[in-house]
Amino acid sequence: MHKRVKTQRRIWLIGGTGESAKLAIGLLQIQLPLVISVTTESARSLYPNSPLLQVWVGRFNLSEIEEFLTQQNIIAVLDASHPYAVEISQNAIAACQKQQIPYLRFERPRWEVGGWGDGEVGGKLIYLDSFEKLVTGDYLVGERVLFTVGYKVLPLFRDWHKRSTLFARVLPATTSIDAALAAGFTQDKLFAMRPPIPINLERELWRHWQISMVVTKASGAPGGEDVKRQLAAELGVTLLIIEPPIILYPRVTSDLGEAIAFCQQHFGSQNV
């Protein structure tokens, strides 16, 4: 009889962000086997080559996550997905609860709602909890608006081209550019570049397009929110920030050391 070889126990790191790359390096330094999931092939480049690390590219639904947890012999889940990647987080939480697998959300540090922080304030700060409120409100009327929110929500603003002047910054990928063009953004109103954007280039772009409002997500410093806050205050531009959806995570941390200790603890408990 052939003896069945059991899959090596692994940590599932839900990745695709700069924070997940730092976590991966930290976990590899203590020799923890990882499988990292990302949604695009280009995101592979975030992670180092290591025999302890596998990168899985694609999207999951709930049943696929449940199967993935079993097939990959996952003993703990560290969720460092983008703050607005709601579906993967909700499904991972549900699957982990069902299979009694420890789950930890790594949340990038965020600014408190309400203030600009240090420095001269010359712009206006607006918080909204959804893109729907932005679309149905009158915030954009007559403004020269730069969207830095990804391509997926741009179709919501197709009709706003008649009431304001809209620009968008998207990733330099065919999918992103085609979606922006289909949403009514002409080529002269598009800028394609992968973040992070140097502050001097960001400043010149806003000035060149005479931007009066920037629409962004509450993405913290890793998402360039610090640069946008600084420039909005400096140039007297309105910064409209869309807050992330509220998810009730079982456990959350913004501490890199705590996240690594969580994985080490649960990996060790499975190897006693």
From TrEMBL:
Record pathway: Cofactor biosynthesis; adenosylcobalamin biosynthesis
One Pfam family matching this protein: CbiJ
Domain of life the protein comes from: Bacteria
One of the record's GO molecular function terms: precorrin-6A reductase activity
InterPro entries, A to Z: Precorrin-6x_reduct (IPR003723)
Keywords of this entry: Cobalamin biosynthesis, Oxidoreductase
Any one GO BP annotation for this protein: cobalamin biosynthetic process
Alphabetical list of PANTHER family matching this protein: COBALT-PRECORRIN-6A REDUCTASE
Name of this protein: Cobalt-precorrin-6A reductase
